[in-house]
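USER: Study each token:
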Amino acid sequence: MPAYHSIFLQDTDVRLIANFPLSPLRTRTRGPAYTLPALPPNSPPELSPDPDHESYDPLDEILSLYRANTFFRNFEIKGPADRLLIYGILCVGELLGRVPKTGGQREGEKALINAALEQFAIPGDAAFPLNQAFEAPRDRQDAETLRQYVVS
């Protein structure tokens, strides 16, 4: 059974930094990403929209495919959207490892906020674990834009 690939592979009008896409996100944070429309007010916040919905973004896809794709040893990268999927799955795994096993929701939120405030590796950094699958940003400005995108 093959791994699940991104449904955003057909999006060709997305800005790229190196080979990393700056896909539209459903966010209220200002940043380099184009902002998708918010979900309707009556939709439950814990549920992702359907993939056909206009507000479905790569974060929804990462969370829905996380469990299934972590079981695969090999993953054929078919385009930039797959790289975003891989990066997102890597980040989710890292963040889940930082959440304390015991404790409440408050302690988990605090651990995730602290992780978001730390300096983190992006493609091209020596500490980034998957540099063979990603290109480095061409200059400091692109690297900073990529960092802003990842935290937005």
Observations:
- Residues 66 and 124 are 24 Å apart (CA to CA).
- The mean pLDDT is 89.
- Residues 80-98 form the longest helix (19 residues).
